[in-house]
Design goal:
Blueprint lengths: L1 H23 L9 E3 L7 E3 L18 H8 L1 H26 L12 E3 L3 H31 L5 H33 L9 H6 L22 H25 L9 H32 L6 H4 L1 E3 H7 L1 H7 L2
Antiparallel strand pairs: 1-2, 3-4
């Protein structure tokens, strides 16, 4: 009986060792696939497919290492996105507090001049309101893990991010419509003029600090600063729109590869940082810095003294 138990024990141990060896030497093709799904993004498959026919679909060695290195710097990207919105806003607020607003030298005349059409005003807000929402949701999505995750529970953070994704994706379409119309309709009035360099040399006449005569440089319908914002918004806005559509609908662009998706994401991030920073400055300049400036995009009209002081060349043409 003892011999029989001994034999059974040996068989059990041998079987266990053999099973362990078999587990350790299982083919890699049997490793489970872990899918890291990002809402409306190209899914990332981590591991190997159990069906060998799926293996050619993704080749890790073919992924551009430069793209991966950029995207792996998640904390740096988050900090850059945060700085483009929050830090720029804080710095400009400090500047306004120290410098003061650019007030009208002769005050408001009470006489209004037609400057923007109803369509211009409507398209401006059709792009502006979604743009602000896209900036803030993009801030939460891009910098959330770096700056906001500790402010709420994991469950609330996940819900907050999911909500931000939904708003971001929905607002993109209204932004695209307004932005494209603005780019096409306003471009002829945003071309360079001889007065632009002088405008930059005097910083638009917005600096109140220091002694000496306060100069309001010549400007046409759009001054040099507005032109700089327009063309920056156009170039990087188109890059944002194009890369965003690739990320949302990869199959519409011929089954975008992993490299293509990573490149689109990088372009989207860089463009978002640039557009966000310029938009914050644009909002300050139009709504806070320039006295009488906001009225332009509320009624489409501007005060006569505002036109004389800020766009004298244009005012001279329309009043001939």
């Amino acid at each position: 009986m003892k011999k029989l138990l001994s034999i059974l024990s040996m068989l059990t141990v041998t079987g266990s060792v053999t099973a362990a060896e078999e587990v350790q030497h299982m083919p890699d093709l049997w490793l489970p696939v872990q899918e890291h799904a990002v809402n409306n993004d190209v899914p990332q498959l981590l591991g190997y497919a159990s069906n060998p026919t799926y293996l050619p679909l993704y080749n890790p060695d073919a992924v551009n290492s430069g793209y991966l290195s950029f995207l792996h710097a998640a904390e740096s990207i988050g900090n850059a996105i945060f700085a483009s919105v929050v830090l720029v806003a804080l710095l400009f607020a400090v500047f306004v507090l120290i410098n003061g607003r650019a007030r009208l030298t002769d005050g408001f005349s009470g006489k209004l001049v037609d400057r923007w059409s109803s369509l211009d005003v409507a398209m401006h807000w059709l792009a502006a309101i979604p743009c602000v929402l896209l900036i803030f949701t993009g801030l939460f999505l891009g910098a959330g893990r770096t700056w906001f995750i500790d402010l709420m529970s994991p469950e609330h953070f996940a819900s907050f991010i999911n909500g931000s994704v939904m708003v971001h994706n929905f607002m993109a379409f209204t932004f695209i419509v307004g932005a494209i119309v603005i780019m096409l309709k306003w471009a002829p009035r945003q071309l360079p003029e001889s007065s632009d360099l002088k405008w930059f040399a005097h910083l638009g006449g917005y600096i109140n600090i220091g002694k000496g005569p306060h100069i309001h440089p010549d400007a046409g319908f759009a001054n040099a600063g507005e032109k700089a914002f327009f063309w920056t918004f156009t170039v990087f806005g188109l890059a944002l729109i194009g890369s965003g559509l690739v990320l949302l609908y990869p199959t519409l662009f011929g089954d975008v590869s992993k490299n293509g998706a990573n490149l689109a994401l990088i372009i989207h991030i860089i463009s978002a940082i640039v557009v966000s920073a310029f938009s914050v400055v644009h909002i300050y300049m139009g709504a806070v810095m320039s006295e009488g400036g906001l009225e332009n995009m509320l009624s489409g009209k501007c005060d006569e003294n505002w036109a004389k002081q800020n766009h004298n060349l244009w005012y001279s043409k329309v009043t001939k």
